[in-house]
Amino acid sequence: MASVLKVDQLQGVSNANNVIVPGGIIQVVEQKFSGRSVINGTYGYANGTGLKCSITPKSSNPIYYVISQIQYTSAGFNAGYFLYDNTNAQYVLYNDQSTTPWNGGSGRKYLTSGGLGSTGFNSNGDDYGNSSRTGSGLYTPPNNNTLEIEVFIGNMNSNGNTYFGGNESDQSAAYDSYSHCSLVIMEIAG
Questions:
Q1: Cα dihedral: 162, 31, 33, 73 (round 10)
Q2: How many DSSP H helices and E strands does the chain contain?
Q3: Domains parsed from the chain with CATH numbers
């Protein structure tokens, strides 16, 4: 006959927060972006959006599951976003066949999202659409320090404005919108 263990609560010897089950999610942090931001960028470079999330690991070998859900558009050029580990100065969740970070003049960029297209989402002349891009996956940092990940917008083929968290028009008309943007980090116990 198999043994059965039934409990109402697990507690550590000195603190209930010390009970860690390997492979389980032990904490979740989220940051949301409110309103809309206009980011003026330069071709080949990227700008921080201010949407960033920090997490202090509870386990000694953390693995993070990161989810970014970002809405943005441009003023007629190609733009993309990437997640960047500000703590350890490295890119997060990009295709490993990419060849160039954002400070490079050519090559495939380390994008989390993919771009909008060569003339941007609003190339037909209207200014009330935007693009929703989601990135998700596992990230193992090089250490167990407090981690900060930020969303950066990169201009891929021109200088100009990117509209983050909404569409290009901001006249408070029926076709204008502020759109949900969020960054979530979940720690998986190692």
A1: 30
A2: 0, 10
A3: 21-188 (2.60.120.1340)
